Amino acid sequence: MCKGTKAIEIINVLSKIPYKQRKLVKEVTLDMSGPMNVIIRESFPNATLVTDRFHVQKIVSEAVQEIRINIRKQAIKNENEAYKKAKKKNKRYYPAVYENGDSKKQLLARSRYLLFKAKSKWTDRQKERANILFKEYPEIEHAYNLSMMFRSFYEYSKSIKEAKQKLDEWYKKVEEKNIDSFLIAADSIKIHEFKILNYFINRSTNASAESFNAKLKGFRAVVRGVRDKKFFLFRIAKLYG
User: In this structure, are 162 and 62 located in the same domain?
Assistant: First the structure.
């Protein structure tokens, strides 16, 4: 356990593990941070580095949400201006609503979660909302389709060669659509491409480590400030069953 993420401090801790044992490590999954890359290279010289799938997908998902958020900000600005104009004329302002009952501002806010999901997993309400959203804002639909195309790169590729081909097709589509947030995401992915493609060797992820880390954080939250031993044991049993 190390406080912070300074490479030299973590390397010093890991170096306490005998070098002979560290050489046996064959694979390490990690995020896209530079310091973590240095730590693993120095500590586990024979390990294959794999950029965690969910960290990569998060970059693409955030690109979609960035577009939605920017459009929503403009919708809020327009609505505020309309409200001020109506107030000056001593009139009440009623925002226009779509057939599902959403105003523009609500439509863009309530569409957040459906943009993370595949169409096959949408509820009926989400399908209705998505149809309106994509009709009103085709740029969001383009962004959503790019994110789903990227997800399929992970879900349906069976080898590094096949994955590389699908990834190149995605790069090409991103260039065609010329959406700033996706161009930036694509550049980040290209930088880490080699380690991203290593996923298709064993399809390893950080899921178990992230789960364990979440339990540690929960444990720390429970014991913070606890002095009574019986109460402490009760809290631990309740948290972890």
Answer: yes
